[in-house]
Design brief:
Blueprint: E1 14-17, H1 25-38, E2 42-45, E3 49-51, E4 61-67, H2 73-86, E5 90-95, E6 99-101, H3 108-116, E7 137-142, H4 146-149, E8 153-156, E9 159-162, E10 165-168, H5 178-183, E11 187-191, H6 195-198, E12 203-204, E13 207-212, H7 218-233, E14 239-242, H8 251-262, E15 267-269, E16 287-288, H9 291-300, H10 304-318, H11 328-343, H12 345-361, H13 372-383, H14 403-410, H15 420-430, H16 437-465, H17 486-499, E17 504-505, H18 516-524, H19 529-543, H20 549-562, H21 567-581, H22 592-604, H23 611-620, H24 622-638, E18 642-646, H25 673-687, H26 689-692, E19 698-701, E20 711-716, E21 720-725, H27 728-733, E22 741-751, E23 758-764, H28 765-768, E24 774-779
Parallel strand pairs: 1-2, 1-18, 2-5, 5-14, 7-11, 14-15, 15-16, 17-18
Antiparallel strand pairs: 3-4, 6-13, 8-9, 9-10, 12-13, 19-20, 20-21, 21-24, 22-23, 22-24
Helix pairs in contact: 1-2, 10-19, 11-12, 11-16, 12-13, 12-16, 13-15, 16-21, 18-20, 18-24, 19-23, 20-21, 21-22, 24-25
């Protein structure tokens, strides 16, 4: 296909659409005129390759050779691309290199491995330890132990059926009695609970339904990327978003191979950066998908002193949910111990086996005579102390697996001589003990396990246990230090413009636990912590007892952020919250009495009469919530990087964690200040790409006067000026803007949000923000 109008090499802005059977390519095509008018340059599509039937997200890929039939197939994708081109839009597609669905009846490659074992040509696709469990691939699919489920296993010709599952039979085994037939297969169906300790394939985090793919193998890379690379070559798609590169054995090598294969197309990676961590400079990508920008923008609208006061109220009223003492870092550490001991026990066991073999086979006597339990303990103690997701080949591992962490790990051992296992493991991680194939395998498995542990312990556990303020509890967030000063924000933007000018930026995604507008409302609570504590005390007394005090904090903040919600919607989000926290109930060990108490609390509290008190409090704070919502949106759309607008967020968008935030897309036709702001900024970016791109500049602009700290402003390439109100409630309590002023750069400036006026010289901030708490100015007359 020859594009009618080539899209720019680097997007000016992307718009994320969640494709699913209820919103296929045809629906996206119908939305193209609306999205083009909005001002974006590219549509950002969730995964488009064949997935498990009915999947609402597409990350459970089953066939890399085909575009997903339920979405309209390749013909539907090409039709969408043609229509997009006619409206000046390109396509960016989400790619999933790390894993596939472990559903053999849909996944032909896995089916062939189950049929032929390690001799299958597809055996190299999957990260399977054939040396474990008698050479059988363990499949944790049985509802109960085998003895109880034997009657549900049926031989049907050359396949084995179990409830909704279908498995191939090894050739020549069809006529064997069932017990012997099961023993003769290349796989072993077992009770699902054995996945914690007995699994012998790598998976996505602790999700056994997603099996790890060995994208580091050139043959596997070619097979799993061929279709998307062909579509890139043919101009159907223009760029890529790489899902979860931290799960790969060698992200450095993978991204280099991808860069070469795509010819350097615009590519961003879903890399989660901890506070102070930078994207590896050697990676040949445009940057991240933008969670680091999310933390910066959210933090800018968070009051540091108020966040500290909220934490004090939280500790006094809720106590400590575990031995973290109501502190962030210990809460994460405790969660990490639980996850590595239980959910990732099989990954730790495999890593320990590799370390034990390296020690046993080493020519260095100093590595001999280390007990597997000691090596396993050393691995566990080092893993839980990692403060980033994982080490990389291109970034010294000593900055990740630090001597300080090693010293703490040694202190766990009661016998000093046994503590030497920590040094042995650390040397293996750092590559000091050899560089053979098994050493490389150990380092990659350590890194892969580290990333899974960090994600599960922080994002999926601690974020639900530590709840003094919910807004910073997002991927890449730092709940222990939620606020970002204007100076630090400007420093971040200056560095990004210099080092990663084409990186992605986001505020809401399909994975955020709360949409940007919900978080913007919650951040206002840091400006009135005492008043919020009083409201909580009042509604807690009015709604009666709650199952536990932490649920009180989580539930009422969730309700406040949403500004009222249907009972089933709020209950679903809070039920997920308490199961993820894992303190009283979990997904796998559900506590019916506790969960019933949660439902009763939601009905009688937030969704009952006491909810009106919180709704009234939110209404009182509405102007300050509006200031945060508009300020965050404008900063996101004009700061360095390529903004990604999540579906529906151009207007008011209040959503919670999935599935709440993955509903089929509906255009936001209702007029609003946020919609007007979004259109103005996006159209400006599309009209003047040079003002925001790689050759652009970023310069902070500082206000003068008593309210100066509440005005955050910056200039892009001397041609566009952004100014927003920060901490507006604190500003109002201090007497407002008064004679605070902002000196504009020389020339006349047109106000894109109030086209009837032009400004120049020294401007009173109160006048600048007379209609809206934000301003977007463009140098007038081409000056």
């Amino acid at each position: 296909m020859t594009p009618e109008r080539p899209a720019p090499a680097v997007p000016t802005a992307t718009y994320r659409l969640q494709l699913q059977p209820e919103f296929p390519f045809g629906a996206a095509e119908a939305a193209v005129p609306y999205l083009a008018a909005l001002g974006v340059s590219h549509l950002h599509l969730s995964p488009v390759l064949e997935a498990v039937p009915g999947s609402t997200h597409g990350y459970d890929v089953v066939d890399h050779a085909r575009v997903r039939g339920e979405l309209g197939g390749e013909a539907g994708l090409r039709s969408l691309a043609r229509t997009a081109r006619k409206h000046g839009l390109g396509l960016v597609v989400d790619i999933v290199p790390n894993h596939m669905a472990a559903a053999p009846q849909h996944n032909r490659a896995l089916w062939e491995v189950l049929r032929a074992g390690h001799e299958s040509p597809y055996a190299c696709w999957f990260d399977i330890d054939w040396s474990a469990l008698g050479g059988q691939l363990l499949l944790p699919v049985l509802a109960h132990r085998l003895g109880e489920e034997l009657g549900h296993l049926k031989v049907d010709g050359d396949v084995l059926r179990y409830r909704d599952h279908v498995f191939p039979l090894r050739e020549g085994t069809e006529s064997l009695p069932l017990p012997q037939l099961l023993d003769a297969q290349w796989y072993r169906p077992v009770w699902w609970r054995l996945a914690r300790t007995e699994l012998n394939y790598r998976r996505f985090f602790s999700i056994s339904e997603l099996i790890g793919v060995r994208a580091e193998d050139p043959e596997v890379f070619a097979a799993t990327h061929g279709t998307l690379l062909r579509l890139l070559d043919e101009g159907v798609i223009d760029g890529l978003r790489v899902d979860h590169p931290d799960g790969l054995a060698d992200p450095d090598a993978y991204l280099s191979r991808l860069h070469e294969a795509t010819g350097g197309r615009w590519t961003v990676v879903e890399k989660i950066l901890a506070a102070g961590e930078h994207l590896p400079a050697a990676w040949p990508v445009a940057g991240t998908t933008g969670y680091d920008a999310l933390r910066q923008v959210d933090g800018l609208f968070t009051d540091p002193s108020g966040a500290g006061e909220l934490l004090g109220h939280y500790r006094r009223s809720a106590g400590a949910p575990d031995d973290g003492g109501g502190r962030w870092a210990p809460t994460v550490r405790r969660a990490a111990y639980e996850v590595v001991t239980h959910e990732l026990a099989t990954e730790l066991d495999r890593l320990t086996r590799v370390a034990s073999r390296l020690c046993a086979e080493s020519p260095d006597p100093a590595l001999r005579d280390h007990a597997p339990w000691a090596l396993g303990t050393a691995l566990r103690e080092l893993l839980v102390r990692l403060e980033v997701y994982r080490p990389y080949a291109s970034v010294g591992a000593t900055s990740v697996v630090t001597e300080e962490a090693a010293a703490e790990a040694r202190a766990v051992f009661t016998v000093p001589e046994e503590a030497h296992a920590v040094d042995v493991v650390r040397d293996l991680v750092l590559g000091r003990s050899g560089d053979g194939p098994l050493h490389a395998e150990f380092r990659s498995r350590f890194a892969q396990t580290a990333s899974a542990l960090r994600a599960k312990s922080a994002e999926d556990t601690a974020f639900y246990r530590y709840v003094p303020l919910l807004s910073p509890n997002e991927v890449g967030g730092e709940p222990g230090a939620p606020a970002i000063s204007p100076e630090d924000f400007h420093a971040h933007c200056t560095r990004m413009q210099r080092d990663w000018p084409d990186t992605g930026t986001v505020l809401s995604t399909h994975d955020t636990k709360r949409s940007a507008d919900v978080r913007a409302a919650l951040s206002v609570l840091t400006q009135c912590p005492e008043r919020w504590a009083d409201v909580l005390s009042e509604v807690t007394g009015a709604s009666g007892g709650a199952p536990d005090p932490h649920l009180v904090w989580a539930a009422w903040q969730t309700y406040f952020g949403l500004g009222q919600a249907a009972e089933d919607r709020l209950h679903g989000a809070l039920l997920k919250h308490v199961r993820e926290a894992g303190l009283h109930t979990t997904w796998t060990e559900q506590n019916p009495a506790y969960e019933a108490a949660v439902a009763a609390f939601v009905a009688g509290g937030p969704c009952g009469a006491p909810g009106r008190l919180v709704k009234h409090f939110r209404d009182v704070l509405a102007p300050h919530i509006r200031a945060n919502v508009l300020g965050a949106a404008l900063v996101h759309l004009t700061m360095p990087g390529v903004p990604d607008v999540y579906q529906g967020t151009e207007g008011e968008y209040r959503a919670l964690v999935d599935p709440d935030n993955r509903r089929p897309f509906t255009p936001q036709e209702e007029p609003s200040d946020k919609a007007d702001l979004t259109k103005a900024a996006l159209r400006l970016r599309r009209r003047c790409p040079e003002v925001f791109g790689a050759s652009a500049t970023y310069a902070p602009l500082v206000a003068d006067g008593p309210g100066a700290a509440h005005c955050v402003a910056f200039v892009r390439s001397g041609a566009v000026l952004t100014a927003v109100t920060r901490l507006s409630l604190r500003l109002a309590e201090a007497g407002g803007w008064r004679d605070t002023s902002l000196t504009l750069p020389p020339g006349r400036w047109a106000d894109l949000l109030a086209p009837e006026r032009e400004l120049e010289g020294r401007v009173r901030v109160a006048d600048l923000f007379a209609r809206l708490p934000v301003a977007l100015l463009e140098r007038a007359g081409g000056e």
